[in-house]
Design brief:
Blueprint lengths: L3 H14 L5 H8 L1 H21 L2 H22 L3 H5 L3
Helix pairs in contact: 1-4, 3-4
The structure holds phosphoribosyl ATP (PRT).
Keywords: Amino-acid biosynthesis, ATP-binding, Cytoplasm, Histidine biosynthesis, Hydrolase, Nucleotide-binding
Pathway: Amino-acid biosynthesis; L-histidine biosynthesis; L-histidine from 5-phospho-alpha-D-ribose 1-diphosphate: step 2/9
Subcellular location: Cytoplasm
């Protein structure tokens, strides 16, 4: 189990060290257009799960959306503070 902040730190580390086989490195290398499409795809899956699926399936889809948002943030060089200041 990890928090949003812990995942973000982990992904920043992946971006910095670029380990072999990292799905985050692949997602970053795919570029912002592909990253944005993944955000839209996962957002749609969250919507569908919220209407039609179990709490567990919904929670999993939300986790994937959070991951995809973090990839966009890291790709653009944003920090958590950049976003949190608007919360
Ligand atoms: N939380 C996630 C996470 N959520 C989603 N995904 C990616 O999203 C994919 C699932 O999304 P889809 O439903 O779109 O599945 P898919 O279409 O079959 O996937 P693709 O073919 O598009 O990659 C997974 O295969 C992962 O590539 C994630 N990849 C990594 N993490 C976490 O990120 C951290 C770093 O991971 P690595 O960069 O892989 O080391 C680790 O803690 C991981 O648990």
């Amino acid at each position: 189990m990890k928090t949003f902040d812990e995942l973000f730190a982990e992904l920043q580390e992946r971006a910095r060290t670029r380990p072999e086989g990292s799905s985050t490195v692949a997602a970053l290398d795919a570029g912002v257009h592909a990253q944005g499409k993944k955000v839209i795809e996962e957002a749609g899956e969250v919507w569908i799960a919220a209407e039609h699926e179990s709490d567990e399936q919904l929670a999993e889809e939300i986790s994937q959306l959070l991951y995809r948002l973090q990839v966009v943030m890291i790709g653009r060089g944003l920090t958590l503070e950049d976003v949190y200041r608007y919360l």
